[in-house]
Amino acid sequence: ELKVEQNPLFLSMQEGKNYTIYCNYSTTSDRLYWYRQDPGKSLESLFVLLSNGAVKQEGRLMASLDTKARLSTLHITAAVHDLSATYFCAVLNQAGTALIFGKGTTLSVSS
Amino acid sequence: GAGVSQSPRYKVTKRGQDVALRCDPISGHVSLYWYRQALGQGPEFLTYFNYEAQQDKSGLPNDRFSAERPEGSISTLTIQRTEQRDSAMYRCASSLFTAGGTWDEQFFGPGTRLTVL
Predict the structure, then answer these.
(1) SS3 label, residue A61
(2) Mean pLDDT calculated for residue range A33-61
(3) Whole-angstrom Cα distance, residue B80 to residue B101?
(4) What are the chain A neighbours of B33 within 8 Å (beta carbons)?
(5) Which residue from A26, A35, A56, A94 is spatially nearest to B93, judged by alpha carbons?
(6) pLDDT digits over B7-18, tens only?
(7) B98 vs A43: CB contact, 8 Å cut-off?
(8) Of the candidates B99, B105, B107, which has its C-beta nearest A97's C-beta?
(9) N- to C-terminal Cα distance for chain B?
């Protein structure tokens, strides 16, 4: 059974500092997704990582995928308040029919 | 164009009643997914459609839950004889091509908040 674990589950960040959140998954998959969710809102797609070694960057966020280690990281550079939200990673199951989500990492940025 | 839409946005019902939740995917999207999200948790997969064919219903919790997509566009998730434990946010997502293909990014709708009293 595919399981996805994120850590930390909560992260209090200071403005201007760098942070990394981690996403581990239990069985082989070559597709990993990062979503952002603001309170009371739907999920917004951030990154789709399709292969080993894939790296994508958007603004202060950079995501990477290591399929051999079954690990994805989401790196935050110089945190700003706008990044406060819950971030989910999700892995496509082997059948290719469902995304299996982690529990999410809630980021809070303070000055 | 418009994103994924869902209706109603909020539904309050009494235990034992049936409810039907509607999803209107992005126009032209082949694949449609239903998820359930409890407060403070990630979405949990319920079922998947490729066009009108329900190809994976392994996430439906029991036989009170069913879904259909008769014309390959709008989908309805039906919960019969609702129970309090069914209370959650029900989200629909759609993607352009079949899951696993290059363009299988899933776009999520705003959800239907179901409360069973």
Answers:
(1) strand
(2) 92
(3) 34
(4) 98-99
(5) A35
(6) 999 999 999 999
(7) no
(8) B99
(9) 37
Residue with tokens 């994976």: B56
pLDDT band at B1 (very low <50, low <70, confident <90, very high): low
Residue among A60, A53, A91 nearest A75 (CA)? A60
Structure tokens at A42: 């739907």
Residue closest to B42 by CA, chosen among A27, A1, A35? A35
For residue A15, list its beta bridge partners.
Answer: none
The per-residue pLDDT for range A1-28, each reduced to its tens digit, is 899 999 999 999 999 999 999 999 998 8
SS3 A70: coil
Q: Does pLDDT of B100 surpass 80?
A: no
Tell the residue number behind the tokens 């996805």, with chain if given.
Answer: A4
Token pair listed for A48: 């789709």
Whether the CB-CB separation of A66 and A57 falls below 8 Å is answered with no
Q: Say if the Cβ atoms of A97 and B55 lie within 8 Å.
A: yes
In this complex, the residue of B42, B104, B111 whose CB is nearest that of residue A42 is B111
- Separation of alpha carbons B110 and B32, rounded Å: 14
List chain A residues with CB under 8 Å of B9.
Answer: none
